[in-house]
Amino acid sequence: MNVFITGCESGIGQNLTKRILKDGHSVFACHFKDISEEETRLFKKKYQDKIHFNQLDVTQRGEVDRAVLDALEAMKTIDVLINVAGISYFSSPLTTTDLEWKNTFDVNVNGYFYLTRSLLPVLINSPSAQIINMSSIWGTRGNKDMYAYSVSKYAVQGMTDGLREYCKPLGIKVTSLILDKVDTSFRELMEGHINISNEQKKKMLAASDVADTVSYLLKTSRNALASSIVLDAALWR
User: Fold this and answer.
1) How much is the pLDDT for 191?
2) Of 82, 87, 141, 212, whose Cβ has the fewest other Cβ atoms within 10 Å?
3) Are 155 and 111 in contact (CB under 8 A)?
4) How far apart are CA 54 and CA 67, in angstroms?
5) What is the CATH number of domain 2-231?
6) Sheet strand arrangement including 51-55
7) Whether 109 contacts 56, CB under 8 Å
8) b/e per residue, 162-180, with b = 16+ CB within 10 A?
9) pTM passes above 0.90
10) What are phi and psi of 211, to 5 degrees?
């Protein structure tokens, strides 16, 4: 399969890219921040024409449309969209600034929407079409300290639910992957505001846990739809 992924420069997106390539699929890996020439060279050396990198700001509709065209030129078809790119601020309903609110929704909600809308006409033609949206437990229960992020993930949940109903008759599977605490740079953001013990860090989800779950989803039969999966950090206390 040919897989289009965002947020591939680090954390979950980077682990997904590696796992999906390892599984034998091709990846169009979109990243906002720069990826070093050395890292690109190593990927190309190992995976050759199965990996394609593209710098993308998901908040810009024009860039999104161009990225989809570039992906089609590189891979000819696209079977799977995985929306990963996201941002968060540690702020309350009172302290969240206008800019923080706007940035959060531009990336976490509008970015998902722009890519989905741009890729739907392509995915319709794939017999293996899937859309996987990364969501959060904070999109199922409120969080007063990461307020804008929490609200944006509620929006992702609603977006994904509505999209799933639209896509069922089209043969496109849509899944919301609802994540608990994952040990990525997101954890580093949290540590700037709350204490996380070394023992707690050991009990967080790893980005590889998310990659394993997506790998499973890509192997499910056409008749098996995982509408949503909650991936808990089960031992966290």
Assistant:
1) 62
2) 141
3) no
4) 7
5) 3.40.50.720
6) 51-55, 26-31, 2-5, 80-83, 130-136, 173-179, 228-231
7) no
8) ebbeebeeeebbbbbbbbb
9) yes
10) -60, -40
